[in-house]
Amino acid sequence: MKWTDDAAAAIGKVPFFVRKRVRARVEAHAGQKGHDTVTIDDVQEVKQGYLENMEQEVKGYRVETCFGPQGCPNRAGPDTDLASRIEALMGKKDLFRFLKQSVDGPLKLHHEFSVTLADCPNACSRPQIRDIGIIGAAVPEITDAACSMCGACVDACREGAVRLNESRQMPEIDRLKCLDCGQCADVCPTGTIRIARRACKVLLGGKLGRHPRLAEPLPGCYDADEVLDIVDRCVDFYKQYSTGGKRFAQLCAESGDALMAALADLIRQNEKGC
Ligand code: SF4
Ligand code: SF4
Ligand code: SF4
User: Fold this and answer.
1) Residue 2 forms beta bridges with which residues?
2) Residue 109: phi, psi to the nearest 5?
3) For the chain, which domains are there?
4) This prediction's pTM
5) Is the pLDDT confidence value at 18 over 80?
6) Cα 81 to ligand 1 centre (Å)
7) Quick check: CB of 152 below 6 Å from ligand 3?
8) 25: which of 106, 150, 201, 252 is 20 to 30 A away, CA to CA?
9) Each residue of 27-50: pLDDT tens digit?
């Protein structure tokens, strides 16, 4: 379907991770009216309907992803169907009913428990401001394969974490600077740097609003089953302790030690880092 310039400009202001969904809804709305071109009126009518019926949009939780699953070349995390598995898990948590009992007044989208996946450290889907943020990690390691000293890994690393040791004729990676994007291994022609593990980093307790808070990372990296276990326990913790619509981020700030205790056995398994 075609879009007028002002309608396209309006949809361009919608946050990218929901833009596709909103765009489809506006096109369906225009189609129902018999239009083959979306106008600004269509956009505004959908927006107005959304504001008037916001509670109907609320399902109690949100699981979002970046564009990684659609083929982004920067993808670093494990190639699993993690988003669908989290969606299935969240669907069993009865969060809508929990929120209806916990929140005074009509529910709004910001009441929903949000989980966001970003498939690499670029973090396009903004995991730092969600209840649970998951970031794909490709952890590099140096093998015994001879290095040609071509420098491609140094050029690829945006963190300045790779240097070439002239006397050893081998690369070195500063783990404190490395963000586990895997780009150095991707460009290495000799296999001297390779990906040792694809996993996920997990951040807990981010939010925007009147009292914004950046989510804090758990130590280490986690495989898909462990991530599901973390999400499961965090939602249970939230349902156990949140009253009056208190956000998970507030709980993390106020009861972080109790939450860490609930996750302790998982975190200990990852003590050595990624
Ligand atoms: S977070 Fe990484 S993998 Fe996902 S869309 Fe952004 S650059 Fe691509
Ligand atoms: S994984 Fe990424 S951040 Fe780490 S050393 Fe390689 S290129 Fe640099
Ligand atoms: S580690 Fe690989 S990419 Fe880096 S200099 Fe050696 S051969 Fe080139």
Assistant:
1) 37
2) -60, -30
3) 53-138+198-269 (3.30.413.10)
4) 0.84
5) no
6) 16
7) yes
8) 106
9) 999 999 999 999 999 999 888 877
